[in-house]
Amino acid sequence: DSGVTQTPKHLITATGQRVTLRCSPRSGDLSVYWYQQSLDQGLQFLIQYYNGEERAKGNILERFSAQQFPDLHSELNLSSLELGDSALYFCASSEDPAGELFFGEGSRLTVL
Amino acid sequence: KDQVFQPSTVASSEGAVVEIFCNHSVSNAYNFFWYLHFPGCAPRLLVKGSKPSQQGRYNMTYERFSSSLLILQVREADAAVYYCAVECENTGFQKLVFGTGTRLLVSP
């Protein structure tokens, strides 16, 4: 158990809809990262937060947004969903911006 | 473009030593990370560093632009996806660039 919790584990929705994925980092970790893993793709970095502030952005679409709350949990919002957004979304946390990443088990999103 | 390259699949037999190779084109890279991912579980770190290192049955080689993960006495239970990642610094922050993962197949 990495200590990182993601909900929901599975989510099925329709195109055009909006979903929110939630992540609780390990206790004490200030950095939260979001990654997307599509079929036959590696882990694509989306965005990083450190202590409530956006730290770095990767290949995150404008339809996607995220935030980190004062209690350090994070949410990834995906809107106007398309079929191609179907993927496994991982959250990871670390003590500091450059520390070892601890991953959650992922949220599998299926867009029909 | 910052990219990490690794084979999509590696096959082996039980008891052998398996090598999974990784190289990259990442600017300002200084660390390799190797993660293990069983489907349905969280990826977890096996070994990391900027020099050759070992953690149990896992050995990591290090060159500036490449690394290999060596799994000693491989078992069927080692069948999983192995991710190579490179840590680098860019515009003042550290980030990990992941490869697409190598699926290890182990036959009895």
Descriptive account of the structure:
The complex is a heterodimer of chains A (112) and B (108). Helix content of chain A is 0%, strand content 51%. Chain A has strands at residues 5-7, 10-13, 19-24, 31-37, 44-50, 53-57, 64-68, 74-78, 87-94, 102-103, 107-111. In chain A, strands 2, 4, 5, 6, 9, 10 and 11 form a 7-stranded mixed sheet that branches. In chain A, strands 1-3-8-7 form a 4-stranded antiparallel sheet, with no helix packed on it. By secondary structure, chain B is mostly beta strands. In chain B, strand 7 and strand 8 form a beta hairpin.
| Class of secondary structure makeup of chain A | mainly beta
Oligomer: heterodimer
What amount of the residues of chain A lies in strands?
A: over 45%
| Largest interface: pair, residues per side | A-B, 23 and 23 residues
Number of strands of chain A: 11
State the order of secondary-structure elements of chain A, H for helix, E for strand: EEEEEEEEEEE
pLDDT averaged residue by residue of chain A: 93
Span of the ends, CA to CA of chain A = 31 Å
Write the layout of secondary structure elements.
The complex is a heterodimer of chains A (112) and B (108).
Chain A: E1 5-7, E2 10-13, E3 19-24, E4 31-37, E5 44-50, E6 53-57, E7 64-68, E8 74-78, E9 87-94, E10 102-103, E11 107-111
Parallel strand pairs in A: 2-11
Antiparallel strand pairs in A: 1-3, 3-8, 4-5, 4-9, 5-6, 7-8, 9-10, 9-11
Chain B: E1 4-5, E2 9-13, E3 18-24, E4 29-37, E5 44-49, E6 53-55, E7 58-60, E8 66-71, E9 81-90, E10 93-98, E11 102-107
